[in-house]
Write a structure and sequence with these properties.
The chain is an alpha/beta fold. It has six helices and nine strands; from the N terminus they run H-E-E-E-E-H-E-E-H-E-H-E-H-E-H. Helix 1 crosses helix 2 and helix 2 packs across helix 5. The structure holds hypoxanthine.
């Protein structure tokens, strides 16, 4: 089956569960940030396991539900938990939910993640708006035959993290007294954290933070015409920037500490962009 046909099967199923639902924005929530789902009103919660063609996450800290509902007056489709390339899924599987959100009608996709801070001036607990990315995962999510119905063979990526939206989001954060920095996100395949030399490489290449997600979904959704908003929660200093060893527990702990501010920011962004 073509990817577009699978997506149609999936959106048909989702719309049967929530007839007439038309989300304006899609959200993909990363490590430890899934509790944001509590902010969604009139929620229809659909476990990924019930959705045809949806992949399932095996990583702790990642729940697996698609939630349809409202934030303020904005209809949203929220992925609580995601799958990663390092789990062994094909890129097609990794990007499938992002493509589904765009096919449901989302013109904007807000993608969050936990990331290691490289700097300058990035510390655990900081929230950072992604201004651009480096795809260092070693594979493109668009590899293979292109389906023109989804997007062009050679999609432009020069404004993938919309400059216009970023400006408005920085204003929203400012008006809420939330410090939001900006930075370039380097995506690595993982699952091992980087070596200090790899972090230094990413730094020389211009990255401000490193992580293992977001970029495949961003490329695939932008290929279909969506604008991307990326927000990283700096959960730890990247390897070699800190002398401490890295751990997934630290990532989850920092994400939990910042969860309240993070939730306020996302609600502010979703309602403020209307
Ligand atoms: N590196 C890669 N991915 C991450 C990190 C990191 O330091 N922190 C959270 N996700």
């Amino acid at each position: 089956m073509k990817q577009s046909e699978k997506i149609k099967e999936t959106t048909d199923y989702i719309l049967r569960r929530s007839p007439g639902f038309s989300p304006a924005m899609g959200l993909i929530l990363g490590s430890g940030l899934g509790n944001f789902a509590e902010s969604i009103e009139n929620a229809t919660v659909i476990p990924y396991g019930e959705i045809p063609n949806f992949p399932q996450s095996s990583v702790s800290g990642h729940a697996g539900n698609l939630i349809l509902g409202n934030i303020g007056t904005t209809p949203v489709a929220v992925m609580q938990g995601r799958v990663h390339f390092y789990e062994g899924h094909s890129m097609e599987k990794v990007i499938f939910p992002a493509r589904t959100l765009v096919a449901l009608g989302c013109k904007t996709l807000l993608i969050t993640n936990a990331a290691g801070g490289i700097g300058p001036d990035l510390n655990p607990g900081d929230l950072v708006l992604i201004s651009d990315h480096l795809n260092l995962m070693g594979e493109s999510p668009l590899k293979g035959p292109n389906e023109e119905v989804m997007g062009p063979r050679f999609p432009d990526m020069s404004d993938i993290y919309s400059r216009d939206l970023r400006k408005r989001i920085l204003d929203i954060a400012n008006s809420m007294n939330i410090t939001l920095k900006e930075g370039i996100y380097a995506a690595m395949m993982g699952p091992s954290y980087e070596t200090p030399a790899e972090v230094n490489m990413a730094k020389i290449l211009g990255a401000n933070m490193v992580g293992m997600s977001t970029v495949p979904e961003a490329i695939a959704a932008h290929h279909m015409g969506a604008s991307i908003i990326g927000i990283s929660c700096i959960s730890n200093l990247a390897a070699g920037i800190s002398t401490e060893p890295l751990s997934h527990d630290e990532v989850k702990e920092t994400a939990a500490k910042i969860a309240g501010t993070f939730r306020n920011l996302i609600v502010g962004v979703v309602t403020g962009l209307r």
